[in-house]
Inverse folding.
């Protein structure tokens, strides 16, 4: 891999040992990929504050500088950590103090994370604490080279925003934050951004549920490839595409899709493929029904004791809709809605949080049951409006899952019974 | 074991080193987050063909990485907790598997000229020479 002069200087220690270790990791990683060079980035989304048993031990041994050196720079030595060289944000992490007494989650982990926030905040890491940084202050522009983790955020940034990022990891984002560099490989290169598969919806795709199911179907079909989707698609909004992308990255490993006429890199199907489109694959009534049944194949008991909304983290519009659906109701099952802390502030101002609390639900931030491996005590069966959470949570917590609309989920929380069906 | 059964697969070493050990072959891709337990060095995905199997000290032969961007962090944790595989041989290179191999710091070969998922079986004695990009397979039984 060719290094530019500033990169060689960083590697050789001109910017101090932590930056040299960061460049060492980027060289090892870039050469493993077969990248020809690095590219500049001023937009990093990674993870530093999330507690883990290894991190807890490292902090005990050498404080946060040791934890960052070992985990985020993949180094054996321990360095003083300089201020982040380029804008860097923390993605979703563990539960915070707003979950104390609500989620069964160790208070010691909440404290450890709060301590991490102080350290990293002082070093220039913006604690957005969400899987949807693009909702709350980190909105990349088209063509911007980014170094992001979190599969649902990566697919949104590439596809909906036209930014360029691979699905990075903890060490590569840590190294990028101190160098402003990332291997120029994969999604950073224009020739790797054309579509590979054409999927046409022959049934209407409209509303949150249907965009999620369509995404789950598409991801399963194309796996790691780049789908171009057309057909009877209603105009989507942010929440629809957030759900669609997260679903494609759960059933498959999609990092980039095109929706001709909607997403920025493809005005037409031909432009999406950079040439003639391949053979068309169909999403019809049968495929829609099969996808619904697949997402609902992990539930046998209809006695729901937990409802989870807001995966990926809810938009303020989703919180508002949940509040309207819950107004004046009394819940028998637990209900959590996850949202970024910044939007929780808006929900508080608007009175949505109070409406949801009055019904017996909770508005929580920073994390989710999958990230924190925590659901209400005794949960056996949960219901959700998120294809991603329905995909992951049964495996992570060993519980049953139902997938449906927001209204069906609220009905289940009120009655304690799942009565959802495909309409 | 006879010399004629020995198979050599050529590829590209992406993490240097040379080791010899017993193969553990997964025909399915492997998840990091939600897929392995770094403390035990085991596969924990319920529907996975290697559910419950320990990869510590084995030459892990697999198609590639799937799932969350936490993949590399989970495999880095196996190194820090002493449960890492001995080496990695995989067919599909992605940012997850490349970074994962780099931070696990075990000899790793990819971009292979023949399919190791067909040629290697669990229990075979395998030499991973990532310095030269050569995987040598000695079947345990004819």
């Amino acid at each position: 891999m060719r290094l530019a002069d500033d990169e060689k200087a960083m590697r050789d220690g001109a910017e101090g040992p932590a930056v040299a270790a960061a460049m060492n990791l980027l060289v090892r990683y870039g050469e493993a990929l077969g990248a020809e060079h690095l590219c500049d980035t001023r937009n990093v989304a990674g993870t530093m504050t999330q507690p883990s048993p290894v991190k807890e031990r490292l902090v005990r041994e050498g404080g946060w500088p040791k934890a960052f050196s070992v985990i985020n720079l993949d180094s054996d030595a321990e360095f003083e950590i300089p201020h982040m060289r380029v804008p860097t944000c923390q993605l979703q992490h563990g539960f915070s103090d707003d979950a104390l007494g609500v989620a069964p989650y160790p208070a010691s982990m909440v404290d450890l994370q709060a301590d991490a926030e102080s350290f990293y905040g002082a070093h220039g890491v913006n604690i957005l604490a969400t899987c949807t940084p693009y909702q709350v202050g980190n909105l990349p522009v088209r063509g911007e080279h980014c170094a992001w983790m979190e599969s649902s955020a990566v697919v949104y940034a590439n596809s909906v925003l036209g930014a360029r990022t691979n699905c990075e990891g903890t060490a590569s984002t840590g190294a990028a934050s101190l160098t402003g560099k990332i291997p120029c490989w994969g999604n950073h290169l224009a020739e790797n951004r054309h579509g590979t598969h054409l999927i046409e919806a022959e049934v209407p795709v409209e509303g949150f549920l249907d965009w999620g199911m369509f995404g789950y179907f598409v991801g399963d079909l194309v796996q790691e490839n780049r789908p171009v989707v057309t057909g009877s698609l209603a105009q989507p909004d942010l929440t629809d595409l957030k759900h669609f992308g997260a679903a494609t990255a759960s059933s498959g490993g999609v990092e980039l899709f095109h929706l001709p006429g909607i997403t920025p890199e493809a005005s037409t199907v031909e432009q999406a493929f950079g040439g003639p489109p391949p053979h068309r694959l169909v999403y019809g009534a049968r495929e829609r029904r099969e996808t619904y049944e697949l997402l609902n194949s992990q539930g046998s008991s209809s006695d729901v004791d937990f409802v989870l909304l807001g995966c990926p983290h809810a938009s303020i519009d989703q919180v508002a809709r949940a509040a309207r659906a819950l107004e004046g109701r009394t819940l028998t099952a637990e209900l959590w809605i996850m949202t970024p802390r910044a939007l929780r502030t808006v929900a508080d101002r608007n009175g949505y949080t109070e409406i949801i609390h009055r019904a017996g639900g909770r508005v929580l931030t920073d994390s989710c049951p999958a990230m924190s491996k925590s659901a209400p005590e005794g949960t056996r069966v949960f219901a959700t409006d998120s294809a991603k959470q329905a995909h992951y949570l049964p495996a992570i917590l060993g519980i049953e899952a139902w997938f449906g609309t927001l209204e069906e989920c609220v009905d289940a929380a009120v009655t304690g019974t799942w009565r959802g069906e495909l309409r | 074991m006879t010399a004629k059964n020995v198979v050599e697969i050529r590829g590209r070493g992406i993490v240097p080193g040379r080791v010899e050990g017993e193969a553990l072959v997964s025909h399915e891709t492997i998840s990091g987050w939600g897929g392995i337990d770094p403390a035990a060095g085991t596969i924990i995905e319920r529907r996975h063909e290697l559910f419950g199997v320990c990869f510590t000290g084995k030459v892990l032969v697999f198609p590639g990485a799937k799932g969350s961007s936490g993949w590399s962090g989970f495999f880095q944790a196996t190194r820090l907790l002493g449960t890492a595989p001995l080496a990695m041989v995989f067919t599909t290179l992605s940012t997850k598997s490349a970074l994962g191999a780099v931070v696990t710091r075990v000899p790793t070969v990819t971009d292979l000229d023949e399919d190791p998922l067909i040629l290697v079986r669990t229990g075979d004695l395998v030499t991973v020479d990532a310095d030269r990009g050569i995987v040598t397979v000695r079947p345990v039984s004819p």
User: Anything to note?
Assistant: Chain A has three domains: 5-190, 194-294, 297-415. Chain A touches chain B through 33 residues (CB under 8 Å).
